Amino acid sequence: MNDRWHKIGHLHDIPPLGARCVLTPFGRIAVFRTADDALYALEDRCPHKDGPLSQGIVHDTSVTCPLHNAVIALASGEMSGPEGGRTRTFDVRVDPASQAVELSLEPRSAEFVRPDRPLAAAE
Ligand code: FES
């Protein structure tokens, strides 16, 4: 393992169709597990109004925000619908030998974008 990857637990710590959160310098990151054991890591903040995505409902490769039902694509962090918006995504992987979940803290998509603000004003 090089410095890019950080062990954050084991695959069995994350329930299928669920999520677990990790506190990082980038804020709280939610690691989601789909029904077919794919993992995705996103900032735990909905682009709409900061809803906790880790408490949403995972379906296929998306999560529905628990606050106002926006659907966020787990792979891209993009919020569906005409308003747009995006939460940051991170790389995550499983060590095949140990089943350890490893998270990269280099954001894959660097910008958090709210649908109601221009990109330059996004946080
Ligand atoms: S905060 Fe997520 S849909 Fe409103």
UniProtKB/TrEMBL annotation:
GO BP terms in the entry: nitrate assimilation
InterPro entries, alphabetized: Rieske-like_NirD (IPR012748), Rieske_2Fe-2S (IPR017941), Rieske_2Fe-2S_sf (IPR036922)
GO molecular function: 2 iron, 2 sulfur cluster binding; metal ion binding; nitrite reductase (NADH) activity
Origin superkingdom: Bacteria
Database matches in SUPFAM superfamilies: ISP domain (SSF50022)
UniProt keyword list: 2Fe-2S, Iron, Iron-sulfur, Metal-binding, Nitrate assimilation, Oxidoreductase
PROSITE patterns, A to Z: RIESKE
Annotated signal sequence range: none
Entry-linked Pfam families: Rieske_2
UniProt xrefs under CDD domains: Rieske_NirD_small_Bacillus
Ranges for domain Rieske: 6-101
Enzyme Commission code: 1.7.1.15
Enzyme class: oxidoreductase
PANTHER family: 3-PHENYLPROPIONATE_CINNAMIC ACID DIOXYGENASE FERREDOXIN SUBUNIT, FERREDOXIN-RELATED
Name of protein: Nitrite reductase (NADH) small subunit
